[in-house]
UniProtKB/TrEMBL annotation:
Belongs to the class-III pyridoxal-phosphate-dependent aminotransferase family. The keyword rRNA-binding does not apply. InterPro entries: Aminotrans_3, Aminotrans_3_PPA_site, PyrdxlP-dep_Trfase, PyrdxlP-dep_Trfase_major, PyrdxlP-dep_Trfase_small. CDD domains: OAT_like (cd00610). The keyword Transferase applies. Keywords: Aminotransferase, Pyridoxal phosphate, Pyruvate, Transferase. This is Taurine--pyruvate aminotransferase. Its cofactor is pyridoxal 5'-phosphate. It comes from the Bacteria. It comes from Methylobacterium tarhaniae. PROSITE patterns: AA_TRANSFER_CLASS_3 (PS00600).
């Protein structure tokens, strides 16, 4: 059978049996589902042979060092033939070595707990916070704050902490003890045009804390830059004040770096850009760049100590396991991913290419009235589309999707924010691999330029 016939068979097998993530399948009755076949650097090819420039690092900001890295494949292969797996109640060579390298990059942090996905890494924190509440606060301080428009994962526990209605709707009931605080998107300020928006957004968190009772709240979970909820960079003064509020009320700070971690914002971690000292940091997507599944929940020695203070108590330790948190491929791939980022100067490239991307997007805002706001950090940008700049009425979802489809038709894959019942699914998302060149950035901007012109003509 020819390669073309093989791939035709693959497409039909996909259509018949694969349930795609986040997808309505009715259209696949008349059009082929897209099946990806190959990737190299910034480019991917689908089963029909079409080439795309990928401006979203594997669709969901994951493939940070690009496709086709044989050195990662070799590192994983070498590790797999030596020892593929042993339960995480024991250590492994790559887990120990990656933990050491990771903690070097995270002053103040000390311990790494391995699992498989961003959702799971976040759930570990929720369990740790609850156990600390039960063991050290008489069952109080068990509530967890989360923010409107943030997202922390797909499991029922993580969805209980999701500030995105489109992800939650119809999946309830959710567990108790999760409390939402207001978003911090200045472009859609809840208080109109104010000088000190960042401080007001932080004060709004404190108001929730005071309403609930500070002695009932154990932690706050925040994305450093909100990803799927609109690429929301924190406003000036926000993080400083949030940190101060949390310290005053003895609330642990959990930063969800599942998207921003490992270089996406131009620093190893997004929170480091904003001078925060967290108690927990979770990460997943970019850690091994999608070459193997891995997620990490990191914490401080002070938090870790709370789980070993009374060895005589048979319930004192963290009673949690993740079977595949014992896979060795993840940390082996992560070690090599980290080496690539360092040796190829990819943090520096992220900063430089991020500036080029930002300039390009601001140029689009000058040419297209539909671009209402441009925001982001490093190689992580969003362009919010509006029907009317004065009222900021969101652009229609179908037109936002048409821009994404037009870029795809012109060979560039971009993303858009999660669909929202509130109609705020109007932000184009860009997160190219950290290896992007000036030519790649220019091509991405050109594709969006053309698409905006055609869709909003
Ligand atoms: N946290 C954030 C900020 C995310 O964007 C995501 C996924 O998109 C998750 C957590 C969940 O990660 P995973 O899909 O690996 O469970």
């Amino acid at each position: 059978m020819s390669r073309t016939n093989d791939l035709r068979h693959v497409i039909e097998a996909d259509r018949a049996h694969v349930w795609h993530h986040l997808s309505q399948h009715k259209p696949y009755e008349s059009v082929d589902p897209r099946v990806m076949v190959e990737g190299k650097g910034m480019r991917v090819w689908d089963a029909t042979g079409r080439e795309y420039l990928d401006a979203v690092a594997g669709g969901v900001w994951t493939v940070n060092v690009g496709y086709g890295r044989t050195s990662i494949a070799d590192a994983v292969r070498d590790q797999l033939v030596k020892l593929n797996y042993f339960a995480g109640s024991a250590g492994s060579v790559p887990a120990a070595l990656f933990s050491e390298r990771l903690i070097e990059k995270m002053p103040g942090m000390s311990r790494v707990y391995y699992s498989n996905s961003g959702s799971e890494a976040n759930e570990k924190v929720f369990k740790m916070v609850r156990q600390i509440a039960h063991r050290h606060h008489g069952g109080r301080k068990a509530k967890i704050l989360y923010r409107e428009r943030d997202y922390h994962g797909t499991t029922i526990g993580a969805l209980a902490a999701a500030g995105q209605d489109q992800r939650r709707d119809q999946y309830g009931p959710f567990p108790d003890g999760f409390v939402m605080v207001p978003h911090c998107l200045e472009y859609r300020s809840q208080w109109g045009a104010v000088e000190n928006y960042g401080e007001m957004a932080a004060d709004a968190i404190e108001a929730v804390i005071l309403r609930e009772g500070p002695d009932t709240i154990g932690a706050i979970c925040l994305e450093p830059v909100t990803a799927g909820g609109g690429v929301i960079t924190p406003p000036k003064g926000y993080w400083e004040k949030v940190q101060d509020i949390c310290r005053r009320h003895e609330i642990l700070i959990h930063i969800d770096e599942v998207v921003c971690g490992m270089g996406r914002t131009g620093a190893w971690f997004g929170y480091q850009t904003y001078g925060v000292q967290p108690d927990f940091v979770t990460m997943a997507k970019g850690v091994a760049s999608g070459y193997a599944a891995i997620a990490c929940t990191t914490t401080t020695e002070a938090v870790f100590a709370l789980f070993k203070d009374d060895a005589a108590d048979p319930m004192s330790y963290f009673r949690d396991i993740s079977t595949f948190g014992g896979c060795t491929a993840g940390p082996a791939a992560a070690l090599e991913t980290m080496r690539i980022i360092e040796d190829e100067g990819l943090l520096e490239n992220t900063v430089a290419m991020g500036e080029r991307l930002m300039a390009g997007l601001h140029g689009l805002a000058e040419r297209h009235a539909v671009v209402g706001d441009v925001r982001g950090k490093g190689l992580f940008y969003g362009a919010e589309l509006v029907a009317d700049r004065a009222t900021k009425e969101p652009a229609e979802e179908k037109r936002v999707q048409a821009v994404v489809a037009d870029c795809m038709a012109h060979g560039v894959i971009i993303g858009a924010t999660n669909r929202s019942l509130a109609g705020l699914n109007n932000t184009l998302c860009l997160s190219p691999a950290l290896i992007a060149t000036p030519a790649d950035i220019d091509r991405i901007v050109e594709a969006i330029d053309g698409a905006l012109g055609r869709v909003f003509a």
